[in-house]
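Q: Trace token order:
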Amino acid sequence: MKILHSADWHLGKKLKTYSRLNEQEAVLKELCDYCENENVDAILIAGDVFDTVNPSVKAIELYNESLRRLSNQGKRLVIVIAGNHDSAERLETYNPLTQNLSIISYGFHDKIIPSGPLSEHWEVIASDRGFVNLRQQNSKQELRVILCPYANELTLKQELSGDKEQSLREVLAEHWQQLADTYMDERGINIMIAHMFFTPESGETQAESEDEKPIRHVGGVQDLYCADIPPQVQYTALGHLHRYQNLRKNDKPPVVYSSSILAYSFAESNQQKYVVLLESDDDQDLNMQTVPIQSGRKLLKQVCNNPDEARSFLSSHPNALIELHIYTDSYLERSLIDELHDLHDGIIEILPSQKKAQSLENESEQVASPIEKSEMELFSDFFFINHQVNPSEELIDLFREIKSKKD
């Protein structure tokens, strides 16, 4: 059996005001083509398929068409769980519409998936709260999946235990272990899919993505540990963090963030994005392979010493999306900004950087108080605080002209 793990599609997400829908469409086409060419049997999508709880019509249409292609008329199993950007209710509404297509949309921990055929090709042979056991028709191989969509701490406790005083880690660990002891043995493939924040086995602290809506906050969800995962689980498919990482080392069962399908902020500049392919052998062991995503524009952040250097960089990277910083002693002229945008269609932002910032903490400097400064000096200070550069001569002349008319 071949299983593909993907996560964090964030359909409809923009970079500033720049739409990424065309890139998202290209990535999902690549994903569908890969599944067809590799004869993938099942795909696990670990949350955040949309970027907001109220996605645009175009984002919904792209998701619907991608689900249709991925399921291949029910021959391929598709399991989607809700992430913290998704509406669990919205995802659940897909279930009546995708009957006979082998698609499971799972938004709530206390939901029990009905047993019986999903299509002519897959059937649910057992289920429980947060668990489903599936089998391909004409196959003895079983796929057992612990399902852990995102929910805040209070909701999780209410759905799983009702004990508000018990820690979330204890609630989830006990629930997962009970499911594993009841349903998971060596005669099938045992997987967990979750949209949660897991701490690496080494115990090191890691940060949530800069552009990711945080879940580690009061009223959110506390960190979970790899040790909370039942030992029967052979692979844990995670969503939420946008960088690929396997939280376990050595030969232990992998706990993997597959990464987002695109770089969604400049904190992810130059990051390669992946999906993960799992393939079982005759002994039900899983072999893992990372598959680089080829589609989509790379995000680059570049600091240039002057406009000529910026022009050269832009011509050398025609297909990237770029955040450009240019060193300057004054404000960047509108004509230069327009010229650079004409040179490259992927400039997201052009920012001035001051070559030599004046230190007001220098003890040798005598800094005048605001009441001792002229209006021109106050204007220059205000401009520098907001733009990190001094105003140009043209702006100073314009300020003088406005001031003279006022006077």
The radius of gyration is 26 Å.
